[in-house]
Amino acid sequence: MNVKIIKPDATLYEGEAKLVQLPGIDGLFEILNNHAPIISALQKGKIRIVDNNDQTLYFDIIAGVVKSEKNSVLLLVQ
Amino acid sequence: MENLKEVRTRIASVNSTQQITSAMKMVSAAKFRRAQNAILAMRPYDKKLSEIIRDINVEDGVDTPYHTIREAKKVLMVVVSSNKGLCGAFNSNVIKEANQRIQHYRKQADVELSLITIGKRATEHFAKHTTLVKSSYDEVLDKPAFDDVAEIAEDIMNRFCEKEYDKVEIVYNKFKNSLTQILTTEQFLPVMPDNAKKDENKVQSDYIFEPSKMEILKEMIPLSLRSQFYRVILDSLASEHGARMTAMQKATDNATELLKELKLTYNKARQTAITNEIIEIVSGAEALNG
Predict the structure, then answer these.
(1) Fewest beta carbons within 10 Å, which of A31, A38, B59, B232?
(2) CATH, domain range B61-194+219-245
(3) Contact A40 B206 (CB under 8 A)
(4) What does the pLDDT profile of chain B (290 residues) look like in tens digits?
(5) Which of B14, B38, B75, B87 is catalytic?
(6) Active-site residue B161, yes or no?
(7) Which residue of B has its CA nearest to A42?
(8) ipTM given for this complex
(9) What is the model's pTM?
(10) What CATH number is given to the structural domain containing A30?
(11) How would you classify the pairing of strands A64-69 and A38-42?
Protein backbone atom coordinates (compact mmCIF):
# COMPACT_ATOMS: atom_id res chain seq x y z
CA MET A 1 0.00 0.00 0.00
CA ASN A 2 1.05 3.54 -0.60
CA VAL A 3 1.82 5.72 2.39
CA LYS A 4 2.26 9.47 2.41
CA ILE A 5 3.09 11.51 5.49
CA ILE A 6 2.93 15.26 5.09
CA LYS A 7 3.66 18.13 7.40
CA PRO A 8 2.79 21.72 6.54
CA ASP A 9 6.40 22.45 5.61
CA ALA A 10 7.59 19.14 4.25
CA THR A 11 6.75 15.67 3.05
CA LEU A 12 8.20 13.27 5.58
CA TYR A 13 7.59 10.03 3.77
CA GLU A 14 6.15 8.88 0.52
CA GLY A 15 6.29 5.32 -0.67
CA GLU A 16 5.20 1.73 -0.35
CA ALA A 17 4.83 0.07 3.01
CA LYS A 18 3.61 -3.15 4.56
CA LEU A 19 2.51 -1.80 7.89
CA VAL A 20 1.79 1.53 9.52
CA GLN A 21 1.41 1.78 13.26
CA LEU A 22 -0.29 4.92 14.50
CA PRO A 23 -0.91 6.59 17.86
CA GLY A 24 -4.69 7.01 17.66
CA ILE A 25 -6.36 9.04 20.36
CA ASP A 26 -7.91 5.85 21.73
CA GLY A 27 -4.69 3.90 21.55
CA LEU A 28 -2.17 2.45 19.14
CA PHE A 29 -3.49 0.82 16.01
CA GLU A 30 -2.09 -0.56 12.79
CA ILE A 31 -3.05 -0.30 9.19
CA LEU A 32 -2.11 -3.21 6.97
CA ASN A 33 -2.77 -3.93 3.33
CA ASN A 34 -6.42 -3.85 2.26
CA HIS A 35 -7.59 -2.09 5.36
CA ALA A 36 -11.17 -0.84 5.27
CA PRO A 37 -11.53 2.90 4.59
CA ILE A 38 -10.88 4.78 7.80
CA ILE A 39 -10.52 8.31 9.05
CA SER A 40 -9.04 8.77 12.46
CA ALA A 41 -7.40 11.37 14.65
CA LEU A 42 -3.93 10.89 16.05
CA GLN A 43 -2.34 12.09 19.24
CA LYS A 44 1.23 12.88 20.22
CA GLY A 45 3.44 9.88 19.68
CA LYS A 46 5.44 7.90 17.15
CA ILE A 47 4.42 6.67 13.76
CA ARG A 48 6.05 3.35 12.87
CA ILE A 49 6.32 2.30 9.28
CA VAL A 50 7.61 -1.03 8.00
CA ASP A 51 8.43 -0.62 4.33
CA ASN A 52 8.62 -3.33 1.70
CA ASN A 53 12.29 -4.01 2.46
CA ASP A 54 11.41 -4.68 6.11
CA GLN A 55 13.04 -1.47 7.18
CA THR A 56 11.38 0.17 10.16
CA LEU A 57 11.05 3.93 10.24
CA TYR A 58 9.82 6.16 13.02
CA PHE A 59 8.35 9.65 12.91
CA ASP A 60 7.51 11.79 15.92
CA ILE A 61 4.30 13.75 15.75
CA ILE A 62 2.40 16.04 18.09
CA ALA A 63 -0.96 15.64 16.41
CA GLY A 64 -2.43 14.48 13.18
CA VAL A 65 -5.14 12.84 11.19
CA VAL A 66 -5.14 9.77 8.98
CA LYS A 67 -7.27 8.88 6.02
CA SER A 68 -6.93 5.52 4.38
CA GLU A 69 -8.80 4.12 1.45
CA LYS A 70 -8.05 1.71 -1.38
CA ASN A 71 -4.60 0.99 -0.09
CA SER A 72 -3.51 4.54 -0.01
CA VAL A 73 -2.80 5.98 3.42
CA LEU A 74 -2.63 9.71 3.83
CA LEU A 75 -1.26 11.13 7.06
CA LEU A 76 -1.45 14.81 7.85
CA VAL A 77 0.72 15.39 10.88
CA GLN A 78 2.30 18.17 12.87
CA MET B 1 37.49 73.35 -10.35
CA GLU B 2 35.76 72.57 -7.05
CA ASN B 3 32.41 71.91 -8.69
CA LEU B 4 33.85 69.27 -10.97
CA LYS B 5 35.31 67.36 -8.09
CA GLU B 6 32.11 67.58 -6.12
CA VAL B 7 30.08 66.14 -8.96
CA ARG B 8 32.60 63.35 -9.40
CA THR B 9 32.29 62.35 -5.75
CA ARG B 10 28.53 62.37 -5.97
CA ILE B 11 28.61 60.18 -9.07
CA ALA B 12 30.83 57.73 -7.27
CA SER B 13 28.54 57.60 -4.25
CA VAL B 14 25.35 57.21 -6.28
CA ASN B 15 27.09 54.50 -8.26
CA SER B 16 27.94 52.48 -5.18
CA THR B 17 24.44 52.98 -3.77
CA GLN B 18 23.04 51.64 -6.99
CA GLN B 19 25.27 48.62 -6.77
CA ILE B 20 24.04 47.94 -3.25
CA THR B 21 20.36 48.34 -4.10
CA SER B 22 20.58 46.14 -7.14
CA ALA B 23 22.45 43.50 -5.16
CA MET B 24 19.77 43.67 -2.47
CA LYS B 25 17.16 43.28 -5.12
CA MET B 26 18.79 40.09 -6.34
CA VAL B 27 19.00 38.74 -2.79
CA SER B 28 15.35 39.58 -2.14
CA ALA B 29 14.37 37.93 -5.38
CA ALA B 30 16.06 34.71 -4.29
CA LYS B 31 14.51 34.87 -0.82
CA PHE B 32 11.18 35.72 -2.33
CA ARG B 33 11.28 32.65 -4.50
CA ARG B 34 12.05 30.51 -1.48
CA ALA B 35 9.18 32.04 0.50
CA GLN B 36 6.84 31.53 -2.40
CA ASN B 37 7.86 27.90 -2.69
CA ALA B 38 7.13 27.41 0.99
CA ILE B 39 3.61 28.72 0.42
CA LEU B 40 3.19 26.44 -2.58
CA ALA B 41 4.51 23.48 -0.60
CA MET B 42 1.88 24.10 2.02
CA ARG B 43 -1.05 24.15 -0.36
CA PRO B 44 -1.50 20.39 -0.76
CA TYR B 45 -1.57 20.06 3.02
CA ASP B 46 -4.28 22.68 3.33
CA LYS B 47 -6.22 21.08 0.53
CA LYS B 48 -6.08 17.59 2.01
CA LEU B 49 -7.02 18.90 5.41
CA SER B 50 -10.18 20.55 4.16
CA GLU B 51 -10.89 17.47 2.04
CA ILE B 52 -10.88 15.29 5.13
CA ILE B 53 -13.04 17.78 6.99
CA ARG B 54 -15.45 17.58 4.07
CA ASP B 55 -15.32 13.77 4.16
CA ILE B 56 -16.28 13.80 7.80
CA ASN B 57 -19.22 15.96 6.84
CA VAL B 58 -20.88 16.84 10.10
CA GLU B 59 -24.27 18.46 9.70
CA ASP B 60 -24.32 20.68 12.73
CA GLY B 61 -21.32 22.86 13.51
CA VAL B 62 -18.63 21.68 15.84
CA ASP B 63 -18.28 23.08 19.28
CA THR B 64 -14.79 23.20 20.71
CA PRO B 65 -13.21 25.52 23.25
CA TYR B 66 -11.83 27.35 20.21
CA HIS B 67 -15.33 28.21 19.03
CA THR B 68 -16.60 29.83 22.22
CA ILE B 69 -17.62 33.40 21.55
CA ARG B 70 -17.18 35.54 24.63
CA GLU B 71 -17.72 39.23 24.97
CA ALA B 72 -14.44 40.75 23.76
CA LYS B 73 -13.08 42.21 26.98
CA LYS B 74 -9.54 40.97 26.68
CA VAL B 75 -8.25 41.24 23.16
CA LEU B 76 -4.94 40.00 21.88
CA MET B 77 -3.53 41.42 18.70
CA VAL B 78 -0.70 39.69 16.88
CA VAL B 79 1.26 42.10 14.70
CA VAL B 80 3.45 40.50 12.06
CA SER B 81 6.15 42.73 10.57
CA SER B 82 9.69 42.07 9.39
CA ASN B 83 13.07 41.99 11.06
CA LYS B 84 14.76 44.19 8.50
CA GLY B 85 13.81 47.46 6.92
CA LEU B 86 14.24 48.80 3.39
CA CYS B 87 11.07 47.24 2.14
CA GLY B 88 8.96 50.23 1.27
CA ALA B 89 5.77 50.80 3.20
CA PHE B 90 5.60 47.16 4.30
CA ASN B 91 6.20 47.77 7.99
CA SER B 92 4.68 51.22 8.28
CA ASN B 93 1.44 49.87 6.80
CA VAL B 94 1.24 47.12 9.37
CA ILE B 95 2.07 49.47 12.21
CA LYS B 96 -0.43 52.05 11.00
CA GLU B 97 -3.18 49.45 10.78
CA ALA B 98 -2.30 48.09 14.22
CA ASN B 99 -2.40 51.61 15.66
CA GLN B 100 -5.81 52.13 14.18
CA ARG B 101 -7.03 48.94 15.80
CA ILE B 102 -5.52 50.04 19.10
CA GLN B 103 -7.35 53.37 18.88
CA HIS B 104 -10.52 51.51 18.04
CA TYR B 105 -10.27 49.33 21.13
CA ARG B 106 -9.26 52.22 23.37
CA LYS B 107 -12.52 53.94 22.58
CA GLN B 108 -14.33 51.03 24.19
CA ALA B 109 -13.70 51.71 27.84
CA ASP B 110 -13.66 48.20 29.23
CA VAL B 111 -11.46 46.46 26.70
CA GLU B 112 -8.09 45.29 27.83
CA LEU B 113 -5.72 45.02 24.89
CA SER B 114 -2.47 43.07 24.64
CA LEU B 115 -0.01 42.75 21.81
CA ILE B 116 2.25 40.05 20.55
CA THR B 117 4.73 41.30 18.01
CA ILE B 118 6.56 39.22 15.45
CA GLY B 119 9.40 41.01 13.69
CA LYS B 120 11.84 43.54 15.10
CA ARG B 121 10.24 46.49 13.37
CA ALA B 122 6.94 46.13 15.15
CA THR B 123 8.56 45.02 18.39
CA GLU B 124 10.73 48.10 18.58
CA HIS B 125 7.97 50.47 17.57
CA PHE B 126 5.39 49.20 20.02
CA ALA B 127 7.86 48.76 22.85
CA LYS B 128 8.70 52.44 22.49
CA HIS B 129 5.19 53.80 22.18
CA THR B 130 3.02 51.49 24.22
CA THR B 131 3.11 49.20 27.21
CA LEU B 132 0.84 46.65 25.60
CA VAL B 133 3.45 44.24 24.27
CA LYS B 134 3.22 40.99 26.19
CA SER B 135 5.78 39.03 24.24
CA SER B 136 7.53 39.13 20.93
CA TYR B 137 8.98 36.51 18.66
CA ASP B 138 11.46 37.93 16.21
CA GLU B 139 13.58 34.85 15.54
CA VAL B 140 10.89 32.80 13.80
CA LEU B 141 11.11 35.04 10.78
CA ASP B 142 14.76 34.23 10.19
CA LYS B 143 14.05 30.57 9.69
CA PRO B 144 10.37 29.85 9.55
CA ALA B 145 10.22 26.23 10.69
CA PHE B 146 6.77 24.89 11.23
CA ASP B 147 7.49 23.56 14.70
CA ASP B 148 8.60 26.95 16.04
CA VAL B 149 5.62 28.73 14.55
CA ALA B 150 3.25 26.04 15.81
CA GLU B 151 4.59 26.56 19.33
CA ILE B 152 3.57 30.22 19.26
CA ALA B 153 0.16 29.31 17.89
CA GLU B 154 -0.22 26.62 20.54
CA ASP B 155 0.62 29.10 23.28
CA ILE B 156 -1.96 31.59 22.03
CA MET B 157 -4.58 28.84 21.67
CA ASN B 158 -3.99 27.62 25.22
CA ARG B 159 -4.31 31.13 26.60
CA PHE B 160 -7.52 31.57 24.70
CA CYS B 161 -8.95 28.35 26.16
CA GLU B 162 -7.94 29.43 29.65
CA LYS B 163 -9.98 32.59 29.06
CA GLU B 164 -6.90 34.78 29.29
CA TYR B 165 -8.05 36.31 26.01
CA ASP B 166 -11.52 36.55 24.56
CA LYS B 167 -10.53 37.39 21.04
CA VAL B 168 -7.35 37.09 19.01
CA GLU B 169 -6.65 39.08 15.88
CA ILE B 170 -3.73 38.99 13.49
CA VAL B 171 -2.55 42.03 11.56
CA TYR B 172 -0.28 41.11 8.67
CA ASN B 173 0.46 41.56 4.99
CA LYS B 174 -1.31 38.91 3.00
CA PHE B 175 0.59 37.73 -0.01
CA LYS B 176 -1.01 38.18 -3.40
CA ASN B 177 1.89 38.46 -5.80
CA SER B 178 5.33 39.95 -5.81
CA LEU B 179 3.95 43.43 -6.42
CA THR B 180 0.85 43.38 -4.27
CA GLN B 181 0.50 42.82 -0.59
CA ILE B 182 -2.90 43.03 1.00
CA LEU B 183 -2.91 44.48 4.47
CA THR B 184 -5.20 42.19 6.42
CA THR B 185 -6.69 42.00 9.89
CA GLU B 186 -7.87 38.48 10.47
CA GLN B 187 -9.70 36.99 13.39
CA PHE B 188 -7.76 33.99 14.60
CA LEU B 189 -9.83 33.03 17.62
CA PRO B 190 -12.63 32.29 18.28
CA VAL B 191 -12.90 30.27 15.10
CA MET B 192 -15.32 31.90 12.71
CA PRO B 193 -18.16 29.57 11.78
CA ASP B 194 -17.65 28.32 8.29
CA ASN B 195 -20.42 29.85 6.22
CA ALA B 196 -19.21 28.24 3.04
CA LYS B 197 -21.90 26.34 1.28
CA LYS B 198 -22.24 22.82 2.50
CA ASP B 199 -21.48 20.14 0.00
CA GLU B 200 -24.89 19.04 -1.19
CA ASN B 201 -23.90 16.02 -3.16
CA LYS B 202 -22.68 14.08 -0.21
CA VAL B 203 -20.24 11.52 -1.46
CA GLN B 204 -20.78 8.95 1.21
CA SER B 205 -17.84 6.64 1.23
CA ASP B 206 -18.18 4.21 4.06
CA TYR B 207 -15.36 5.27 6.24
CA ILE B 208 -14.80 3.87 9.65
CA PHE B 209 -14.54 6.80 12.00
CA GLU B 210 -12.32 6.07 14.92
CA PRO B 211 -13.40 7.54 17.37
CA SER B 212 -16.60 9.41 16.45
CA LYS B 213 -16.83 12.02 13.69
CA MET B 214 -17.22 14.73 16.28
CA GLU B 215 -14.12 13.67 18.18
CA ILE B 216 -12.01 13.61 15.04
CA LEU B 217 -13.22 17.04 14.03
CA LYS B 218 -12.41 18.38 17.46
CA GLU B 219 -8.90 17.04 17.09
CA MET B 220 -8.59 18.58 13.67
CA ILE B 221 -9.48 22.14 14.66
CA PRO B 222 -6.17 22.80 16.48
CA LEU B 223 -4.43 21.12 13.54
CA SER B 224 -5.91 23.58 11.11
CA LEU B 225 -5.43 26.53 13.47
CA ARG B 226 -1.73 25.83 13.74
CA SER B 227 -1.34 25.55 10.02
CA GLN B 228 -3.37 28.73 9.57
CA PHE B 229 -0.95 30.57 11.82
CA TYR B 230 1.97 29.12 9.88
CA ARG B 231 0.41 30.28 6.64
CA VAL B 232 0.14 33.81 8.05
CA ILE B 233 3.86 33.83 8.80
CA LEU B 234 4.71 32.48 5.34
CA ASP B 235 2.43 35.02 3.70
CA SER B 236 4.01 37.86 5.60
CA LEU B 237 7.50 36.66 4.71
CA ALA B 238 6.74 36.36 1.02
CA SER B 239 5.11 39.79 1.11
CA GLU B 240 8.15 41.24 2.83
CA HIS B 241 10.56 39.96 0.21
CA GLY B 242 8.22 41.00 -2.56
CA ALA B 243 7.95 44.50 -1.08
CA ARG B 244 11.70 44.73 -0.68
CA MET B 245 12.23 43.57 -4.24
CA THR B 246 9.93 46.31 -5.52
CA ALA B 247 11.47 48.94 -3.26
CA MET B 248 14.99 48.04 -4.33
CA GLN B 249 13.99 47.99 -7.98
CA LYS B 250 12.63 51.52 -7.56
CA ALA B 251 15.76 52.65 -5.75
CA THR B 252 17.92 51.22 -8.52
CA ASP B 253 15.83 52.99 -11.15
CA ASN B 254 16.07 56.23 -9.22
CA ALA B 255 19.83 55.88 -9.00
CA THR B 256 20.05 55.34 -12.76
CA GLU B 257 18.00 58.49 -13.32
CA LEU B 258 20.14 60.46 -10.89
CA LEU B 259 23.33 59.21 -12.51
CA LYS B 260 22.14 60.40 -15.88
CA GLU B 261 21.52 63.89 -14.54
CA LEU B 262 24.79 63.96 -12.67
CA LYS B 263 26.74 62.87 -15.73
CA LEU B 264 25.14 65.71 -17.66
CA THR B 265 26.10 68.22 -14.96
CA TYR B 266 29.58 66.75 -14.85
CA ASN B 267 30.06 67.05 -18.60
CA LYS B 268 28.77 70.61 -18.60
CA ALA B 269 31.12 71.57 -15.80
CA ARG B 270 34.01 69.87 -17.58
CA GLN B 271 33.20 71.68 -20.82
CA THR B 272 33.05 75.00 -18.98
CA ALA B 273 36.42 74.29 -17.41
CA ILE B 274 37.97 73.46 -20.79
CA THR B 275 36.45 76.51 -22.42
CA ASN B 276 37.75 78.67 -19.61
CA GLU B 277 41.21 77.23 -19.98
CA ILE B 278 41.24 77.81 -23.74
CA ILE B 279 40.08 81.39 -23.25
CA GLU B 280 42.90 81.89 -20.75
CA ILE B 281 45.50 80.46 -23.12
CA VAL B 282 44.21 82.40 -26.08
CA SER B 283 44.02 85.66 -24.19
CA GLY B 284 47.47 84.96 -22.69
CA ALA B 285 48.90 84.40 -26.16
CA GLU B 286 47.23 87.52 -27.46
CA ALA B 287 48.65 89.54 -24.61
CA LEU B 288 52.14 88.32 -25.57
CA ASN B 289 51.63 89.15 -29.25
CA GLY B 290 50.09 92.50 -28.52
Answers:
(1) B59
(2) 3.40.1380.10
(3) no
(4) 557 888 999 999 999 999 999 999 999 999 999 999 999 888 889 888 888 888 876 666 677 888 888 888 899 999 999 999 888 889 999 999 999 999 999 888 788 899 999 999 999 999 998 888 888 899 988 888 888 999 999 999 999 999 999 999 999 999 988 888 899 999 998 887 665 555 555 555 678 887 888 888 888 888 889 999 999 999 999 999 999 999 999 999 999 999 999 999 999 999 999 999 999 999 999 998 87
(5) B87
(6) no
(7) B219
(8) 0.85
(9) 0.86
(10) 2.60.15.10
(11) antiparallel
